[in-house]
Amino acid sequence: MSAPGQEWDENSPERLYVITRGRSGLAEQTTFDLVTLIVSRSEPEPSMQPEHAAILRLCGAPLSVAEISAYLRLPISVVTVLLADLLAEERIEARSAVPQAILPDRALIEAVMHGLQKL
Amino acid sequence: MDFRSSDTVVGPRSADLLPASATTAVKVVIVGGFGVGKTTLVGSVSEIRPLTTEETMTQAGAGVDDIAGVERKTSTTVAMDFGRISLSDELVLYVFGTPGQERFWFLWNGLFEGALGAVVLVDTRRLEVSFDVIGRLEDRGVPFVVALNTFPESPAYPTEELRTALDLPPEVPIVACDARTRESGRDVLMTLMRYLYRLSAPPAG
């Protein structure tokens, strides 16, 4: 297999368009926060798009959407499109970020303070 | 960003893996003017070597340039450095900071949504660069504390003088820090959490 990406301008919108098959990622951003934790639920398969397979390999242990983006060197909006595909096929588990509230939950803030005190 | 073929993607070091029991992640955003030390602060509190993520943003060119009558779109890549702190077997805190142009982060969908709060890192030698970010956080309703990154040659202002200069409400905490040290960075995050805790108190009466 030839190394993907070599004949592309690495930052070209066209290349990212191909990876996502033209989807913008805007819809998926409501499902995935930057810190939604992703865990693989299946092994990569040879027939899969390489980016999907790479995500499954990375997420043997929980990894945030932001970390996946950093390790794959793909923008967040591209990663969320790929994650939505995998979630629809039940190949990953998404441990959602804390539900949005107007003010943070007191118990959660207490847990964060407790953790910081141990640093 | 260049996607690496799936066989060559370098993932986290084994020492950097989160436990399988990690279920909840929260985030805090460090904001401030260029060169104020955001990346330094992220690096000093993070348990992993800071990583960089990117997003490409498109916005109408209005207000960006002055070519009268010509409407066009500009596309900008905004990079965000971030670090991670495991707070318990279940709970993980991510800290985001950006070296980029601050006006673009506010276009980043999902950066501030769901964030517990923000830290405005201020260089007292250049207070003016903080006005814009403080105003934008207030507009968005994101709770924040102000941390003064103390550089050796920084003028030492009394806190209340700074509060006036930055036009901050009396309840917003102001804390001095040395962004290079973990303890100091931890204390800044703790100041934010205590403030959030107070804000989350049920209204009296």
UniProtKB/TrEMBL annotation, chain A:
InterPro entries: DUF742. PANTHER family: DUF742 DOMAIN-CONTAINING PROTEIN. This is DUF742 domain-containing protein. The lineage of its organism: Bacteria, Bacillati, Actinomycetota, Actinomycetes, Kitasatosporales.
TrEMBL record, chain B:
GO terms for molecular function: ATP binding; GTP binding; hydrolase activity. The keyword Glycoprotein does not apply. This is ATP-binding protein. Belongs to the GPN-loop GTPase family. Keywords: ATP-binding, GTP-binding, Hydrolase, Nucleotide-binding. Gene3D superfamilies: P-loop containing nucleotide triphosphate hydrolases (3.40.50.300). The keyword GTP-binding applies.
